[in-house]
Amino acid sequence: MNFEFYMPTRVIQGKGCVRNHPEVWKSMGKKAFIVTGKSSAKKNGSQDDVTAALDECGISYEVFDEVMSNPTVEVVYRGAEKMKACGADFVIGIGGGSPMDAAKVIGLLYSQDIREEDLFSGNYEDCLPPMVMIPTTAGTGSEVTKAAVLMNDRLQTKTSVTSPLIFPKVSFLDARYMEQMGRRTTINTAVDALSHSMEGMISKKATSITNILAKESIRYICSCFDDLLSENEISLDVREKLLYGSTLGGMVIAHTGTTAVHSLGYELTYFKGDDHGRANGLLLGSFLKFAEERIPETAAQILEAMGMKDSAELSRMMDELLQEKTAMTDEEIQKFADIAMKAKNIKSSAFDVTREDVVEMYRKAR
């Protein structure tokens, strides 16, 4: 049995954890550069908790709140310049995957000069500042991964900056920041987390350890589906389960990477404006159907963790959760398939994914 497992991020989960660990903040540096979006971190209390914790430790800070959903190359370069100008020596990312991913790349660009054409090369110097992440959604798992995804207009898709150097040093998980999150966003992010763990098990790089984490993640996330479909308020207990499942999924893809679902989903986000998690969810059922046919033992393990009998049941659940498909013309499907087939992660699946498979997955998503 040969494998490697490397997870250098310290994870601290619990109510009030951001303010309950001053020793962590004091070890980071003297001035923080806080990366976030325009409003959500302010509304859910996470930014106030972070700034209060910094004030209590005598650490100064500057806030960069210009990160949009699906961050661009331009915004991370702008953020890095502002971090250099303000004299900060560590980075804090607060929010969903977009602010956390942007924070990682800002930390990378702050530490060294990288031309835009080399940004996705993976060739970086080991001189990054400490990075702390506080997720406010339960979806991306970015708080424990070595990847950061940006919109790549040159390739008309989303592309990852990937390196062990961008693993956060510490991540704080407090589900209270998600209590006011809308049901639609909660569903989309949960489906994103599910796709990470499913794809991790269907990856060529899957190991016994990542499969254990993935199955635990799948069990927790799927156990919340009935609550997500009900009309009742989503409880803090459910949100904690989703956050735990999401972080485990992040640990999985930190080792396995993603596979064909992400390759195809990026086009639905770039061209059709679908939320990332929703885009993945539209493709999950048909991808698992291929797994049932080609790697049945792995598919059976995934279904057992889900508490489902087959991929058709997963497809029906995704239809209930996502509510509607995405309109695509045949011409668009052919264009998306051409782009998806060029993505690196489409080749990471444990079975060959052909262009015909890709076209079929898109057709079933519309």
Can you put this structure into words, describing what you see?
By secondary structure, the chain is an alpha/beta fold. The longest helix is centred in the last third of the chain and has 21 residues, at 236-256. The model has no long low-confidence stretch (mean pLDDT 96). Helix 6 (183-201) runs antiparallel to helix 7 (208-222) and helix 14 crosses helix 15 (355-364). It contains 15 helices and eight strands. It has two domains: 10-177, Rossmann fold (3-Layer(aba) Sandwich); 182-364, Dehydroquinate synthase-like - alpha domain (Dehydroquinate synthase-like, alpha domain). Strands 1-8-5-4-2-3 form a six-stranded parallel β-sheet, sandwiched between helices. It has a two-stranded antiparallel ribbon with strand order 6-7.
CATH architecture of the largest domain: Up-down Bundle
Topology, number of strands = 8
CA-based shape: globular
Summed up, the domain count is 2
Name the helicity range.
Answer: 40-55%
Order of helices and strands: EHEHHEHEHEEEEHHHHHHHHHH
Superfamily at the CATH H level of the largest domain? Dehydroquinate synthase-like - alpha domain
**What is the overall pLDDT average?**
96
Class from helix and strand fractions: alpha/beta
CATH class of the largest domain: Mainly Alpha
Instruction: Describe the sheet with the most strands.
Output: 6 strands, parallel
Unreliable stretches: none
Biggest sheet strand line-up:
1-8-5-4-2-3
